[in-house]
Amino acid sequence: MILTGPEITTAARDGRLRIAPFEPGQVNPNSYNVRLGPTLLTYTEEVIDAHRPNPTREFEIGEGGFVLQPGQLYLGHTVEEVGSDTFVPLLFGRSSVGRLGLFVEITAPIGDLGFHGQWTLMLSPTRPLRVYRGMKIGQIMFFLSVGPVDLYSGKYQAALGPQPSGYWRDRPGTEAAAR
């Protein structure tokens, strides 16, 4: 079952889900709009290596916006910290943003029960596109989980700002892989 807008509002007020800051005007019929935070990351190496940490470059989105370039992956983040120990969140790009040629979160929309933090957004433009901090970029839907719950306690917990891939930590023999 998916939460309706009024139930999202009720759950945010009673603590079953956390959206901070919560703005009633961002509630939709069955989702909550999230906004683009001020920081973007890009990888600096021509080849990204899944088995090691990869260096990144940080950009701040100024008052005049920031132009995303095609062929470049940008890691952004939500302004809002979102999470729940009760509902499974799924984040998708807004259709209005997709119609501008920006792919948002096409490979990893699902959040884990127990994750609480800002969401890292994978942003891929099809053509040059100026984006602005604070623009409504995505929407999160919340689904009821059924069965025993094992809350998330992984490498991205309590994230603030965009997080580069920590995939290298999942390799056998690493501390995180043992968890």
From TrEMBL:
It comes from the Bacteria. Keywords: Hydrolase, Nucleotide metabolism. The keyword Cytoplasm does not apply. This is dCTP deaminase. The lineage of its organism: Bacteria, Bacillati, Actinomycetota, Actinomycetes, Kitasatosporales.
